[in-house]
Design a protein that fits this description.
12 strands, mainly beta, Immunoglobulin-like
């Protein structure tokens, strides 16, 4: 299985379309946000990942997200989420993770995402001073 896309978003909705086919409406895709109050602060952005299962695979997997203060696997871990999932082979699924991220000061955190023990897919998130 593979991660097709992963983004921080403000809103995520699914709807049916003719076919039958499914549409995913993502709004407010972001890589940064202004802090709601001066640091230190905790923010809870939503991370959505779209995952594809090729035909012939089992369709059972585990989605792991480790929020870190840097790009390397050895970087400080801020939060972690692990969730098993099932998807029909040849189809897509999604995972929605709400990170509870503590920022002692403004800066960047990276969501390290993977399916099973596959390669990491990194998504940056920057906390800016209040607007």
């Amino acid at each position: 299985m593979q991660i097709v896309s992963a983004l921080f978003v403000e809103n995520f909705e699914m709807r049916q379309a003719p076919g039958p086919s499914t549409r995913i409406d993502l709004t407010g895709a972001m890589f940064s946000m202004a802090a709601p109050e001066p640091a230190p602060v905790t923010v809870t952005p939503h991370l959505v990942a779209l995952i594809y299962c090729p035909p012939g695979e089992s369709g059972n997997g585990v989605f792991e997200v480790v929020f870190r203060r840097g790009l390397e696997e050895e970087s400080e871990q801020v939060a972690r989420n692990v969730s098993p999932f099932t998807v029909d082979p040849g189809k897509f699924t999604y995972r929605l993770v709400r990170g509870e991220l503590e920022f002692p000061d403004y800066g960047q955190i990276f969501a390290h995402c993977r399916v099973d023990r596959g390669p990491w897919h990194l998504v940056p998130f920057t906390l800016l001073p209040p607007a």
